[in-house]
Amino acid sequence: MQIEKFSYDNRIVRDFAYATMIWGIVGMLVGLWVALLMVFPSWNLGGIPVGKETIGLSFGRLRPLHTNAVIFAFVGNGMFMGIYYSLQRLLKARMASDLLSRIHFWGWQLIIVAAAVTLPLGITTGKEYAELELPIDIAITLVWVVFGVNLFWTIVNRRERHLYVAIWFYIATLVTVAVLHIVNSFGYPASFFKSYSAYAGVQDALVQWWYGHNAVAFFLTTPYLGLMYYFMPKAANRPVYSYRLSIIHFWALIFLYIWAGPHHLLYTSLPNWAQSLGVVFSFMLIFPSWGGMINGLLTLRGAWDRVREDVILKFMVVAVTAYGMATFEGPMLSLKNVNAISHFTDWIIAHVHVGGLGWNGMLTFGILYWLFPRMFRTELHSKCLANMHFWIATLGILFYAVPMYWAGFKQSLMWKEFTEAGQLKYPFLETVTQLRGFYAMRAFGGTLYLVGSILGVYNLFRTAARGSLLADEAASAPALERTYEAHRGEHWHRRIERKPVPFLVLTLVVILIGGVAEMMPTFLIRTNVPTISSVKPYTPLELHGRDIYVREGCYTCHSQMIRPFRSETARYGEYSKAGEFVYDRPFQWGSKRTGPDLAREGVGNNRKSDAWHYNHFEDPQALSAGSLMPSYAFLMDREMDTAAVPARIRVMRKLGVPYPEGYDRQANADLMAQAGKVRASLAADGIKTPANREVIALIAYMQRLGTDIGSSITAENR
Amino acid sequence: MSKIVSQYADQVSGLVVYPAIALVLFMAVFAAVLLQVRRMSREHLREVSHLPFDTADEPRTPNDQNP
Question: What count of Cα atoms within 13 Å lies in the side-chain half-sphere of residue A348?
Fold first, then answer.
């Protein structure tokens, strides 16, 4: 048998490792800053004019920057680091193309930079975790294809016939992220950086949360499970506890995960059957998830004594434990009775941070501590510092999560509490002002985690500085024989484990079943979204105001979805109907209520005067003492972009909105006529402002909300 | 427990066919995989689970031991 000599590319692993560390610190810093904005709302810096644009430094624009940075920059680069290291060793082959590896690396970093520039500029689709606009979405697709080609080309070049379980998870990640990203990003461009979702209302919500939940599943979970299956055995010096269990874990997990998205939309206007599917499959997810967790923890069988001494194992144990906690909590949160309490509250923030800080963060650093001494051929700079990092980070997670759980319960119970006379006990504002202490504790927990990460990054950079990179690591292995004689009585799984293309196809089929079963009926059966004849398209001014609402990220704090609970209908009015959202591209139901629901803001006694809105946008605390809302005074100076209106109307027409033919030419005249009325209304209350200011459009949109299906008297404002 | 089950069962009435099909599909896949993994030989499982360690050339730190 001929032994071939080759080398592994460690340079690409190092580059992704540096990127994950640097972007991790950046993402966590932005996270800490937005956490502090919840404690000190006056620190919201509003908008800084740069030419015609405004850099937004308030919560609504920075929160998507935080989530994108930690998901796609920190975890994304961490994932690629681990994949590029383990894939080469498991296949006994260098990455097929160094050029493709470099294009992948620099392409991904450019996308991150593009996100860091566009999101503060308010260039956003307004869909959570998919905020990047169409040109960047296309760039992501191209870079992902480069990654996929390089990965599969390497598999083709392999010297090991069998694909280890970690590689199955990488293949599932590759194919599913591609499907999710492409389907959810479908949009119609109105300009280079402004597009409207191809889906509207309920359908947009279903596609978005099918994507959103599976971004958690296939970007934050499956690749990291692959890394767990490689690096945990390596760190523990013993093979995975049960390879059998890993097979069941893989197929059950990818089959079930893809159905779970609707649990983000329980009690909303999504058809009930789709909600029920989401509940059933989310609940079943606990079994494969815990199978994986148990497999990870039991890999340490007989090595638990080493956990006390080995800081890498400590990081990994906390990571897998956090995975177990988050994947127990997830199915529980998917039960409708639990979700009725948890949804829209800080409980969800706690849940995702147990996953993000615990599972992804701790596993990333555990892998980094394992990799650096090997790649740089030296000892870790300081084990003491690494231990300090571990304890500070672990305490940071606790200080973050516990106050957020408490805050979530507290707020939800306050929302639902009635007096003996049957009135809502707490005005919404009070349910927020009482949480500021918890938000302060959360910021403290986040600070601890960040300090730990800075110590870790310092330690790792010092390790790199004291060693030298083994850029091309020599290796040897026998060439893969071209002919292969299958074992007698070979089972189908063993066969498929050595055939990457059928494996990919089977994975694709498995993940498509859930998506198709949920989406096709929602799109094809008209009764799933009953139309309401009184629901009309937005006027050009309202549409412009809606675009500003999306641009400023108002959906990060305000929902537009009244659930059919007494506590919600009493506070906000008639519960939301599917037919009300047919012109909403994107839907803006939101996922968190730091501010009140706005679905019926323009109706009945929820409705405020134009002057109230003007003053509230300028100085929210002057009208609502203790409010956490940032000032949007810069909207009073910014002129409306009326030049963009005709193109936006044309796109809406193409998407099926029944504006009359040629209305794009009439739209600006109607816009200015309506803006004139708002200006006159403000003038009557002593506010002098030109009619062409953005705040006028936003006020018009606020006053439109919920008006389609009539007036509504609510208890809160009676 | 039965109350919770019946509560969810009520909500899918009329559309019970969707979760039923899905459940059957999942159970079929799950049963097929379960059957296959039970039939796998210990020798094969030992071989594949040791793949991460099949790296004679890999640089090691002083504390590393062979599995």
Answer: 19
Residue A402 Cα to chain centre, angstroms: 22
Question: Could you read off the pLDDT of A483-499 as tens digits, one per residue?
Answer: 777 766 677 777 888 88
Assess A4–B contact: CB distance below 8 Å, yes or no: no
Q: Can you give the C-alpha Rg of chain A in angstroms?
A: 26
Question: Tokens 């869909």, residue?
Answer: A127
- Residue A197: beta bridge partners? A187
Q: Is B8 on the interface with A (CB under 8 A)?
A: yes
Burial bucket for residue A62 (CB in 10 Å: 0-12, 13-18, 19+): buried
| Residues A532 and A708 sit within 8 Å (Cβ to Cβ) | yes
Q: How far apart are the first and last CA of chain B?
A: 45
Q: Is A233 on the interface with B (CB under 8 A)?
A: yes
| Full DSSP string of A570-619 | HHH-S---GGGGTT-SS----SB-SS---TTTTSGGG---HHHHHHHHH-
CB of A368 within 8 A of CB of A460? yes
Establish if A89 touches chain B: CB-CB under 8 angstroms.
Answer: yes
The interface pTM score, or ipTM, of the predicted complex is 0.76
**Nearest CA-CA partner of B8 in A266, A201, A716, A448:** A266
Residues of A in contact with B36 (CB under 8 A): 247, 491-493
pTM of the model: 0.93
Question: What is the residue-level pLDDT of chain B in tens, covering all 67 positions?
Answer: 445 544 554 555 454 566 677 778 778 878 888 888 888 888 888 888 998 987 666 665 544 543 3
Residues 661-680 of A with CB under 8 A from B: none
With contacts defined as CB-CB under 8 Å, which chain B residues touch A276?
Answer: 8, 11-12, 15, 19
DSSP state of B12: T
